[in-house]
Amino acid sequence: MRTPVATWTVKSAPRRRDYITLQSRRIKTLTATKIEQAVDGLLAGEWADKTARIHFATSLDSQDTKPDTTIREQTGRLATIKITFVSPEMYRRPPTC
Questions:
Q1: Which architecture does CATH list for 17-92?
Q2: Using a CB cutoff of 8 Å and minimum separation of 24, what contacts does 42-50 make?
Q3: Low-confidence residues of the chain, pLDDT below 70?
Q4: pTM over 0.70
Q5: Angstrom distance (rounded) from CA 11 to CA 76
Q6: I want to staple 32 with a disulfide (CB 3.0 to 4.6 A). Which of 47, 70, 75, 82 is the partner?
Q7: Which of 89, 84, 39, 85 is nearest to 63 (CA)?
């Protein structure tokens, strides 16, 4: 699913990255490879240049912290090209200021 970013967030020149992308997956286990594959899939596709934020959603309970390192790595990877990675893990963490 892809949705345009709300127009009220952009007041100046048009942005290249105007969409929020949702990758929703029904999986039994969340592994580093599956997280990397989701990011690789986005970057290999036509929406990589249009996406401002990707939400990675799964059917799993997000209490497991094993994928935390990979989530941080992929968040950094996407940040270098100005894409925000949002995962269930982010909803559990207290905000950093």
A1: 2-Layer Sandwich (3.30)
A2: 42/83, 47/2, 47/19, 47/21, 48/81, 48/83, 49/16, 49/17, 50/2, 50/16, 50/17, 50/18, 50/19
A3: 1-15, 60-66, 88-97
A4: no
A5: 27
A6: 70
A7: 89
Q: Which amino acid is at 25?
A: R
Distance, in Å, from the CA atom of 83 to the CA atom of 76, rounded to the nearest integer, reads: 9
pLDDT at 62: 54
Element (H or E) spanning 37, and its range? helix 32-44
Return the bridge partners of 25, or none: 58
**Terminal-residue alpha carbon distance, the chain:** 30
Burial class of residue 29, CB neighbours in 10 A (0-12, 13-18, 19+): exposed
